[in-house]
Amino acid sequence: MRSRIEAAEMSFLRRVAGLSIRDRVRSADIRERLRVEPLLLRVEGSQLKRFGHLVRMPPGHLPGEKFPSGFQRTSVVLFPPTSLCEQCARASVAVASEYMQRVREVEGQLRSRLTNEVVHCGMSGRGSVLTDRSALLQDRDGADDLLLCEKRQLIQLKQYLEGALRNTLDQLPTLGQSSKQLLDCASERAQVLELLPHSSSAGGHCSTAQTCTKTNPVGPFTPECKQVLESSCSAVNQSRQLRINIRQMLTSAISRQSTVHPTVDDGLVKKIAGTISLQQNLTLMSAATRQAMFRKQRDINCIRHSHGRLQGPEHSRDVLSREKLNRPLVQAYQRHPGTQLPEAAHLIRGSAVLKRRHTSSQGELARLQRACLQQADADVIRMRRLQVDRRAMPSFLQQGA
């Protein structure tokens, strides 16, 4: 629709570019279709003021205004100059281009809005799918319990190991501080040893008044050094004990992990095997049920056909041309109710019995379908209620479960 409107406007612009001033002024219906009358009138008015001597009209009137009743226009009108046609064409093309630019802007806005709506719908659909998936996975069975028990054991081991890691990180600054203090004491001791006199090496004699004291090469000279050595010894002992504890915790964690994983794997393998066997049994039961349904449907169809045959023809075209209405077979079909033949009563009783059998067969088929559905539901419930053999599980797994 928009392309047709644009084509019509362009064809009209071509026609307007080829018309004279007088014809364009008189074509009011065309101006209404184009809806650019004010712009053309302004252009033509400015040009007619310049070339007013070419058109015989009263002064002060512009194109588009009504002429007085007593005024008579002549039919002699010269062709407008080329510049006027070019200006009109340029003005028309500018209006058309502005219209097309606005149309493109609106189209771009609509496209961007449509893209945003599509993205929003996609995100909302993804969120709803994730929500439905979480709602569908609410039913739990023995395999879920096994995985939950394994998760609890691993979380407990993680907490133990994180505690040991925190203790180790707390011990590292203590060791660093004690090492720094020991280095300071060692530097101080080295300075003191440099200042001590070495009389024995110089060959001097010690008098009786002077006593030469022998210092312990590894002993402390000051109480501060003694305190630093004691704190360093305590930090080293704590580090040694922490290392022993960490080694024991790692050993116990590895042993527990090696015990938990095979137990859970065995339980999951049993669950998978039970699920596969149940699926195979359900497939066999479904096939047997379908076979029974088809068999019963064939029986119902046969009974229906027999019942229809016993009811007799429903229309004259059902009776063959060689059959006569006075035959006992036709009389048995109650074409003539006044007869006293015994076949009619027997057929009526047989039809009633067949109808009852047909009704009972339909009821049995419905009960069979319900029983098959109930049996399938019972199998599923029994599978869900199966638990892992607790004799094969260790004691700490039973306590965690």
Report the order of strands and helices. Answer: HHHHHHHHHHH
Report helical residue fraction: over 70%
Secondary structure tally: strands: 0
Q: In terms of structural class, how would the helical and strand content be classed? A: mainly alpha
- Broad shape: flat
Residue runs with pLDDT of under 50 for 5 or more positions: 19-28, 33-77, 199-212, 327-334
Oligomeric form: single chain
Number of helices: 11
The main β sheet shows up as:
none
The average pLDDT value, as a whole number, equals 72
**What is the CA-CA span between the terminal residues?**
72 Å
**Percent in strands:** under 5%
Radius of gyration: 56 Å
Structural domain count: 2
Write the topology of this structure.
Blueprint: H1 2-18, H2 21-26, H3 28-34, H4 37-50, H5 82-136, H6 142-195, H7 199-202, H8 223-311, H9 328-332, H10 342-385, H11 395-400
Helix pairs in contact: 1-5, 4-5, 6-8, 8-10
Subcellular location: Cytoplasm
Pfam family, one: Tektin
Main location: cytoplasm
Q: Can you characterise this structure?
A:
Keywords: Cytoplasm. It is found in: Cytoplasm. Pfam families: Tektin. Its main location: cytoplasm. With 401 residues, this protein is mainly α. The protein is built from eleven helices and no strands. The chain has helices at 2-18, 21-26, 28-34, 37-50, 82-136, 142-195, 199-202, 223-311, 328-332, 342-385, 395-400. α1 packs antiparallel against α5. The longest helix has 89 residues, at 223-311.
